[in-house]
Every structure is written in structure tokens, then in C-alpha cells.
């Protein structure tokens, strides 16, 4: 099974900051990588698929990059509604495992 | 508007069984893969199982193989998860999600399953 590791586990930032979250796969997954956002008490929301393609309706301040084993999610200018937990998920092979999450908190 | 509504969660003793349901509306249910994802209290997301549009393919995470069964009834726009031989470590919020074989486009609000004596 493929293991997904995110870093950091938590991150403090301010509104307007540029932040980057990293996700690493235990083996090459090409560009089969998704990102989700989850707010407390809510279901996750699908943000990015195929490593860099934005799901419809997701603001353009979100972007994704990477291939192989290393991937990043970048938020170019943090907005108050972006403070949440972010998860990567490999979509290369079953079981379609998630990273452990990165909690983005207000500084 | 796409809606997914889970039901069937609750308190069950270790070794017991529970059947979760997920009712879909606002989209062509029979055209999409459906999945179950769970989240233990205070923990991250764990992909559990998914099922092809016609039910002909099903995949499971190893920890539930042989104990959980995913199924669907397209005539009723419904997804199910039969959970047998439940363990304490199965305690979680269970979400259903629609999408492709790998992408989880829309999610329900979740239903809590607690396995405890």
C-alpha cells in the first residue's frame, strides 16, 4: 500500500500570507494526487485533482504542483475562510490513502 | 444541488453489526462511483471502500476486508455499507462520497458509528 506523508502537521499563518503544504508519497504516483479542505465539524471539500487541476468553483489563490513522489499545495494569499485542515490523497492505486492532514491556524 | 445524506449510525457492541445507508439526490446517481470514507474522533481521513456504477467492481482497505460489504441500489439512489464483526477501532464518522473511481467530488455530512461495550 502507498503511504502519504504531509508536512508540516500544523502551520500558523496570517491573512494575506503565502503558504505551502507538502505531501510525499512512499512510491511514485505520477500526477495521481488530490487535495481536500476540511473545516471543523464539516465534510471535506474537493479542491484539486491530478496534482494541479482546480475543481470547479475553487478560488484561483489555490494551486497544486508536483509529480512522482513530491507534491505541494500553495495558497497565494490566505483569506479568513482558508483556515482549515488540508489532506492530500493518492489516486494511483487502491487503497486510495490520505495523508495525515495539515492544520492551518491563524497566527 | 447534489445532496448525500447518510444514516444508520449509532452505538453498537464489539462484534456486532450495523448497516449504513447513503441517499443521493440532485445528480445522476447511477453514473458515478460511490465511496465510503471514515474519520476516527480527532483523527484524519481513511478511505474505506468504493463501488463502480453498476456494482461490478468493489475495492476495500485491508482493515475492513471480509468484515464490511459495500453495495448500491441505483433504482433507489442509495449506497450501503454493511459492517459486521465491528471493533473498537471502527469507531468513526462515516462519510459517503460521489465521484470517479478515485476522486471524491461531493460528500455527505457523515454518520457517527461508536463501537463500545
Explained architecture:
The complex is a heterodimer of chains A (107) and B (117). Chain A is 0% helix and 48% strand. With 107 residues, chain A is an all-beta fold. In chain A, strand 5 (45-49) and strand 6 form a beta hairpin. Chain A is globular, with a radius of gyration of 13 Å. Chain A starts with a strand and ends with a strand. The mean pLDDT of chain A is 97. With 117 residues, chain B is an all-beta fold. In chain B, a hairpin with a 5-residue loop joins strand 4 (33-39) and strand 5.
User: How many DSSP helices of chain A?
Assistant: 0
How much β-strand is present in the residues of chain A?
Answer: over 45%
Averaged pLDDT of chain B: 97
> Describe the biggest sheet of chain B?
7 strands, mixed
- The first-to-last residue Cα distance of chain A is 36 Å
Q: Can you summarize this structure?
A:
With 107 residues, chain A is an all-beta fold. Chain A has strands at residues 4-7, 10-13, 19-25, 33-38, 45-49, 53-54, 62-67, 70-75, 85-90, 102-106. Chain A starts with a strand and ends with a strand.
List the helices and strands and how they pair.
The complex is a heterodimer of chains A (107) and B (117).
Chain A (H helix, E strand, L loop, with lengths): L3 E4 L2 E4 L5 E7 L7 E6 L6 E5 L3 E2 L7 E6 L2 E6 L9 E6 L11 E5 L1
Chain B lengths: L2 E5 L2 E3 L5 E8 L7 E7 L5 E7 L6 E3 L7 E6 L4 E6 L8 E8 L4 E4 L3 E5 L2
Parallel strand pairs in B: 2-11
Antiparallel strand pairs in B: 1-3, 3-8, 4-5, 4-9, 5-6, 7-8, 9-10, 9-11
Amino acid at each position: 500500500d502507498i503511504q502519504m506523508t504531509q508536512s508540516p502537521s500544523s502551520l500558523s499563518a496570517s491573512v494575506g500570507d503565502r503558504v505551502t503544504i507538502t505531501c510525499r508519497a512512499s512510491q511514485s504516483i505520477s500526477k495521481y494526487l488530490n487535495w481536500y479542505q476540511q473545516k471543523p465539524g464539516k465534510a471535506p471539500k474537493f479542491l484539486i485533482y491530478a496534482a494541479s487541476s482546480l475543481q470547479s468553483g475553487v478560488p484561483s489563490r489555490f494551486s497544486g504542483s508536483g509529480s512522482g513522489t513530491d507534491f505541494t499545495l500553495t495558497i497565494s494569499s490566505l483569506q479568513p475562510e482558508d483556515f482549515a485542515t488540508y489532506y492530500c490523497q493518492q489516486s494511483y492505486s487502491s487503497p486510495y490513502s490520505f495523508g495525515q492532514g495539515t492544520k492551518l491556524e491563524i497566527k | 444541488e447534489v445532496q448525500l445524506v447518510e444514516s444508520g449510525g449509532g452505538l453498537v457492541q464489539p462484534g456486532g453489526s450495523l448497516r449504513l445507508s447513503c441517499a443521493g439526490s440532485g445528480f445522476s446517481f447511477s453514473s458515478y462511483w460511490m465511496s465510503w470514507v471514515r474519520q476516527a474522533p480527532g483523527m484524519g481521513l481513511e478511505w474505506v471502500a468504493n463501488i463502480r456504477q453498476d456494482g461490478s467492481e468493489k475495492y476495500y482497505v485491508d482493515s475492513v476486508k471480509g468484515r464490511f460489504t459495500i453495495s448500491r441500489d441505483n433504482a433507489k439512489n442509495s449506497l450501503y455499507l454493511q459492517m459486521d464483526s465491528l471493533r473498537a477501532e471502527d469507531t468513526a464518522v462515516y462519510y459517503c462520497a460521489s465521484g470517479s473511481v478515485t476522486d471524491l467530488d461531493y460528500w455527505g455530512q457523515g454518520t457517527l458509528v461508536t463501537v463500545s461495550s
